[in-house]
Amino acid sequence: MPLDRHRLRALTDLDAAAGLLRELGYVAPPRRIDTASLRLGDFPRNYLLQDGNSSAAGYRVLVAETRNPPRQWASLGRLLAQNLHDRPLAMIGVPGADGAWDRVVLLRPRMVRTPGGAYRTRTARLEVARNHPTRHDAEVIEQLRWRGGDFQDAHQALDAAFDAEAVAKRFFVGLRGHFDRLEEAIHTLGRSDTAALAGITQAGGSQRVAIRIVSQVLFCYFLQRKGLLAGDRDYLLSRWRRKSGPYYARELEPLFYQTLAVPVAQRGAGLPGAEVPFLNGGLFERPYGDVSLNVPDAVFAPEPGDGLLEYLSRWTFTISEEAPDEVDVALTRSCSGASSKT
Fold it and tell me: Among 15, 81, 206, 268, which is 20 to 30 Å from 214 by CA?
């Protein structure tokens, strides 16, 4: 049975993590190790799952807890590859204020050959917000099942699970259908509303408007993943649940053009304050003038619908600091993008 994303909410501590890994086929008994003596860093709370007696056989999975996660996980990945196993796996829990794990970081380091012929360690990372796991999180972890048998085949399957380029390709293939649906809705709106048509034409046509809207919604998914939209990691879905009229016109337009594009002190009554940042880039400038676009709710409808919000909510988004030799197995935006000010 495929792993349900809600199963990941139970990853509260070391024992829960070891239990999940056992379900995935890592049945070696967990034992504690001295990570400092193995030059892996200081992880006093840990388990090692080990199958095989050498670093080139079976698996070695480090399950550990830290309250001081590294700023760049690639450094830990290099240590794991150098001192633990040729092709290691790690599951690191970061506790919250209540002691239960707040987030879980999965690491998969592997050696890659540089153009000059040398080798370096490249670490793939998936960070799971334990209380907000996505379908993408569950799908990646499901693919980590240990198949046993041939060493190379088993580990190639793990590498495939952490293939960030394949993740991005699947995402954009699926997103294209939602973009086409939005563009058609905007084009249809222009045929029936002369004011809307004038605004759409001013913005460069229905395709440009659709690109802008999809880009804005995507950017908000990155923001909410970081807790930057009123601390709510489901902010756009929360707005959907409490909407009192057409979602785009009543919720998204005010968020984009009267909130994110406006300094906090200049926002009108009833709009969010400092809990939602002011972004000083051009993404949230209104491209179609004062007209409001009455985009149908069906374009955005979340579960049990099949709209854009439902699709995006399946995926994991992260803002990366572009650390060398580290790649996120998620939809990534560089932190060097649009800046924010409060």
Answer: 268
Q: How many whole angstroms separate alpha carbon 228 and alpha carbon 255?
A: 13
SS3 category, 298? helix
Cα atoms in the 13 Å half-sphere on the side-chain side of 215: 13
Nearest residue to 221 via CA among 305, 140, 313: 313
**Rounded to whole angstroms, how far apart are CA atoms 315 and 331?**
7
Q: What is the pLDDT of residue 55?
A: 86
- For 88-113, give the secondary structure using H, E and C: CEEEEEEECCCCCEEEEEEEEEEEEE
DSSP state of 216: H
Taking the complete model, does pTM exceed 0.90, yes or no? no
SS3 227: coil
Q: Are 267 and 259 in contact (CB under 8 A)?
A: yes
**Each residue's pLDDT tens digit, 88-139:** 999 999 999 999 999 999 999 988 777 777 778 999 999 999 999 999 999 9
Instruction: At 46, give phi and psi (nearest 5°).
Output: -160, 165
